[in-house]
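Before going further, learn to read the protein records used in this course. A complete example follows; check for yourself that the lines match position by position.
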Amino acid sequence: MISVNNLSVQFTGTNLFDHVTFNIGDHDRIGLVGMNGAGKSTLLKILCGWQEPESGTLVIASGQTVGYLPQEMVPDAIGTVLEEAMTAFSALDDLEHEQERLTAEIAERTDYESAEYTRLLERHNEVTEHLALLGGSRRQEQAEKVLLGLGFKHSDFDRPVAVFSGGWQMRVELAKLLLRHPDFLLLDEPTNHLDIVSIQWLENYLASYSGAVVLVSHDRTFLDNITKRTIEITAGRIYDYKCPYSEYVVQMQERRASQMAQLTNQQRQVAQIEAFIERFRYKATKAKQVQSRVKMLERMEEIKIDEVSTESIHFQFPPAPHSGKIVVEAQHLGKAYGDNQVFDNVDFLLTSGKKVAFVGRNGEGKSTMAKIIVGDINDYTGTFKLGAGVQLGYYAQNQAAMLNLDKTVFETIDDIAQGDIRPKIRNILGSFLFGDDDIDKKVKVLSGGEKARLALAKLLLTPSNLLILDEPTNHLDMNSKDILKNALLQYTGTLIVVSHDRDFLSGLTDELYEFRDGAVHEFKGDIMEFLEASNSSITSGSSNSSSTRNTKEATASKQAYEQSKERERERRKLQNAVNQKEQEIEALEAEIAAKDAILARGEAQAPDFYKEYQSLKDSLDRNMQEWEDAVIDLQHFDDAASLNYR
């Protein structure tokens, strides 16, 4: 357990945390939420020891380990992908040496009833369990399994980490952290560099993770699928909700509505008391009552409303100019980078007004196709053309990084603004939360979220009827994502969006194109329908290629779908067994803790009390063993599924 007591931290004169107290249990699944700047990342850094609080204490149970993945870092790996992943097991040698030392010491001692002997046995068990979790002799197998789950191919294992992009290097860092298997896993925006397939793999991995998980994420679906507890940070305080994110939102809104009602009632009561005081202030017969009400006001504690951010971007896209019926048309389209054939023989037709999504693993060609459509790539095979009257608007995946860092916020927009738009630059920037104090800032000093908002603001300046957005939600908070999604729903032109954010895509597009194994497969429907049909795995192949659809393939897809549904049912059964045992363990631990508190008073108890106390502890031991068996069964199931996939 991690125990946080009276934690206080200030930043630029503001209380990020003001005497905050809470605990993190050994098996907790916690989502940290709050406004940007509320202190979520700071809290993770304190929990892992990267930052010291100004006051308060942080206590971690003896022998327990903490692992932390920051939102941004500069990896310095010098080996290959597999070599770097294997460095996660360096702690195994130390554990094995400690196990040998403890075994020898236990064998030599004869003080079996002493507290020290008990402590040695407990530590020996902890080390043995940790060695088993880290894989022992199966180190390379474990490393390969995690790397494959995070999207690497076997052919990537012997490639130097340095040749990969920053996003892929972050995946290596995440793999190393998972392979170390700390007791407390702290993740700050872990999905930023992952595609949908890898996100889903990570969700499944964390669902059966034996330790505690604490994470910060702007991916609503990811939070809902993993967390069972939500800690909100607001105005230096925390509110602890025993529920996932979506349920938290409802309860939080109810709490704030209750606060508003209480404040309204208090203000009404204060007004009535003040009116009484004013009316009878000079009447001797009412002096006692007046004085009583004066003291009542002095004692009354003011009800405070939790801080709520009223800041949010607000915008809508300009009306889309008219275009021809056919917007994009490709025949036998192919693109290769050297010997790497990204996709080939793709037929693609997009008509006016359609809203479609490109999905699939990173590296399968989604961004490449987007660049072909906007004209950034011309060395392709086959034929490609835009329809009559098409006017492009493009938000590249690295759009924020493409901004001129030496220009100011105002200059960035002023350089491309024309005609009637020029007098409205300040209003446009204001709608993207750039106030008068911000417009003269250099782009280089902006945060990732501010750069993303500035890049989006540029899209408004030129009307388009074909909008192509490549990962537009990176660095945007949930509120900003919702507003962008609403603006896109009202957009009257044709939309192509590349995204790994399932909640963002849900309800936004009515058609998907899956990039997989060098081909592009069309799916008629929403992202959630697509994931359900493919058993929450883009690689299951349940969608059909528009150019290769035939009876044989349809039959095979149906069989694969039925098999995947059966696997899903079996896995859900195993996961439910784990969840049930965790609930029983929590209930038993609560009962034991209550009796511990009674025993701590030093008062004599009836014999039945001690009998029941021992019975609870025996039951806890049995349930812990049954929970371990259930977790092992689930892990074996996932291992077998992974081997079948490979």
